[in-house]
Amino acid sequence: MSTLTANIPKTRQDRCGWFQPSLGGCTDAGKNGSGWRLVLLGAPGVGKGTQADLLNKELEACHLSTGDLFRAASKQTESDQSPAMRAAMEHMRRGELVPDSTVWEMVRERAGCIRCRAGFVLDGFPRTLGQAESLKRLMETEKIPLNAVVNYELPLGEIVARLSGRRTCEKCKAVYHITGNPSKVDGVCDRCQGKLFQREDDRPESITVRMAAYERSTAPLIEFYKALGLLVSIPAVGSPDDICGRTIKALRARA
Ligand code: AP5
């Protein structure tokens, strides 16, 4: 798989880029001036973030992760956090979904990213039918179509193994796995030399709550997007590069 990272503006490599619009670069056109606009679906830990990073390099579209947005907000001082954001952090720690109103407030603030001609890969949003309806309305108002919704599929046992071995960079949010995708130096990010940590919601009790929330609230989006003719289902087995190659092939076949 080719690595195009050097040509991509910093905001498009940063999983919280839309949280920091001052970094600049997001108004550039993508390779062809008409970027890909994708939603990634799938259970927690199936590999959406890993794939969004790879798709970001291949398609040069921004990787926008609502989970990373909330984790970035949790690093702000308490006085900088609104009461709604403090409540959101509590939901997240327990593995529950953050209320739609809080999520939508954050996404709406970044509507400029949705309009960016470079396109986007949405990772972790939408996650409920309410969020999907809100996104659909916003995109209809902006007259911007989604290209596809990619649904990654993997048996539960493998998902839990992926979650329990995950390590994340505290600086650039790059994701590793202690056996499946280890960093070159133990505990240190290959990309920015930041420290790697284990996410609080990857504890077994939070994983159970997250899986239940996925089944209840997010799995129904598969039918929602199938009915809109946007769904592309991809088996999430094999190496991250293999899965990305499979995804690009399926997307190009639709284009
Ligand atoms: P979020 O951060 O979005 O978490 P998630 O959806 O639970 O997904 P994960 O990040 O856990 O997993 P992933 O599918 O991205 O997998 P990854 O690539 O890391 O959300 C966290 C929380 O925020 C939510 O629980 C909720 O509270 C809140 N939230 C966020 N958005 C919200 C919204 N819209 N509405 C309401 N609440 C919201 O991979 C996992 C591991 O597997 C890694 O270690 C990776 O290296 C490894 N791996 C990946 N691919 C492979 C492979 N092919 N082979 C082997 N290992 C692999």
Helical percentage: 40-55%
Strand segment tally: 8
Q: Give the termini distance in whole angstroms.
A: 20 Å
Strand content: 5-15%
Structure description:
This protein is an alpha/beta fold. Helix content is 44%, strand content 14%. Strands 2-3-1-4-8 form a five-stranded parallel β-sheet, sandwiched between helices. The protein is globular. Mean pLDDT is 86; it is low at 1-6. Bound molecules: BIS(adenosine)-5'-pentaphosphate. The site of BIS(adenosine)-5'-pentaphosphate (AP5) has 37 residues, from helix 2, helix 3, helix 4, helix 8 and strand 6.
Keywords for this structure?
binds BIS(adenosine)-5'-pentaphosphate, globular, three-stranded antiparallel sheet, 44% helix, alpha/beta, five-stranded parallel sheet, 255 residues, disordered N terminus, 11 helices
